[in-house]
Amino acid sequence: MLRRALVTLLAMSPAALPASSSAEDIKPKTPESAFTAKLRPDILGISSDSPAASARAIFDSSFKARTDAKTDIQQQKFGDTSVSYTAALVFSFSAGAKQTGEVLSANFSSPASANRAYLVARSLTFAPDQQPSKAEMIKQVMDKYGAPTIVGDQHLYYFYRGGSIMSVGAKYKEPAALEAIDKPLDPRTALKLNAASGRGSCVAAMKRTQARDKTLGALLDEAKGANCEGALSVQLTPGTAAPDRVGNAQFTLVDFKGIISAAAIDDAALAAEKNARNPTPKANTPKL
Questions:
Q1: Is residue 288 part of a domain?
Q2: Which of these, 182, 178, 29, 180, lies nearest to 111 by C-alpha position?
Q3: Which residue range is the domain that position 210 belongs to?
Q4: What is the pLDDT of residues 30-50, one digit of tens each?
Q5: Which residues, 6+ apart, have CB-to-CB distance to 32 below 8 Å?
Q6: Which of the listed residues 14, 48, 56, 284 has the most CB atoms within 10 Å of its CB?
Q7: Torsion of CA 224, 225, 230, 234, to 10 degrees
Q8: d(CA 139, CA 152)
Q9: Residue 253 to residue 92: CA distance in whole angstroms
């Protein structure tokens, strides 16, 4: 039955998983993603194709030297089954007068949708004497992720659709991005991120996603309403040491397309599990 099949799946490596599926023997299905093999942004090596087990290894490695780190490994049951899985990871340690603080988190889909990351976030709060310059941070960000879609309001935004970074006509090189970072977003440029039908602003969708509960169900409507398939936000907040220094850097990567796909896969798996537990009685038509 489905419960036994899912327990078996959790013990198998992804390469060993069969591709076929049925209502009574569901195999994990990999969700569609906004990101392609050639364009797969990551945060510390964690991207939307990272299974929870792989991400956990990166979390452990990144925080292994921190004796004061706090770890929150959130387990969740899949529907009404007895199968539990890692739904979220949150590792952190506090900032201090001489210590940069960090919070690293990720949220994952269910075993039915391959337990893949759909949202990854990292926040760095720099100690006063360790605050990097904005120019240095912008260079590092653009070296890693390329030219952003739009810059302003302390953010570099990358929006993805059709396997590429969306363009709104603005051409950002490092000096232009540095000049724009603390200015308000150009409303005419930002408006180009909306669909002709007025479908959701990518900037607003990202901001609401950051403010919401990060469960798959809570983000589904936001994902469906966004006029982009994926997004990366890098926020650089000025520090106290000097105006040209960064006090806090926040990175948020979200796969809207992956959220929609994983939710559909999970719904189908849960419906099959429910049907397996409560099969529709077969009618006995009398012989006439």
A1: no
A2: 29
A3: 2-277
A4: 999 999 988 999 999 999 989
A5: 257, 258, 260, 261
A6: 48
A7: -140
A8: 16
A9: 18
- How far apart CA 58 and CA 55 sit, in angstroms, is 5
**Domain tally, the chain:** 1
Query: At residue 10, does pLDDT exceed 50?
Result: no
Q: Is residue 284 a part of any domain in this protein?
A: no
pLDDT tens digit sequence for 105-153: 999 999 999 999 999 999 999 999 999 999 999 999 999 999 999 999 9
- The whole-angstrom distance between residue 129's C-alpha and the CA centroid of its chain comes to 31
pLDDT for residue 199: 56
Does residue 283 lie in a domain region? no
How far, in Å, CA of 102 to CA of 248, rounded?
10
pLDDT band at 165 (very low <50, low <70, confident <90, very high): very high
* Angle subtended by helix axes 202-211 and 216-225, to nearest 10: 170
What predicted TM-score, i.e. pTM, was given to this entire model? Answer: 0.85
Of residues 241, 17, 253, the one with CA closest to residue 131 = 241
Token pair of 256, please?
Answer: 């809207």
Q: What is the DSSP annotation of the chain?
A: -HHHHHHHHHHS-GGG--S--BTTB----PPP-S--SSS---BTTB-TT-BHHHHHHHHHHHHTT-TT-EEEEEEEE-TTSS-EEEEEEEEEE--BTTB-EEEEEEEE--GGGTTBEEEEEEEEE--GGGPPBHHHHHHHHHHHH-S-SEEETTEEEEEEETTEE---S----HHHHHHHTTSPP-HHHHHTTS-TT--B-HHHHHHHHHHS--SHHHHHHHHHHBSSSEEEEEEEEE-SS-TTBEEEEEEEEEEHHHHHHHHHHHHHHHHHHHHHHSPPPPP-PPP-
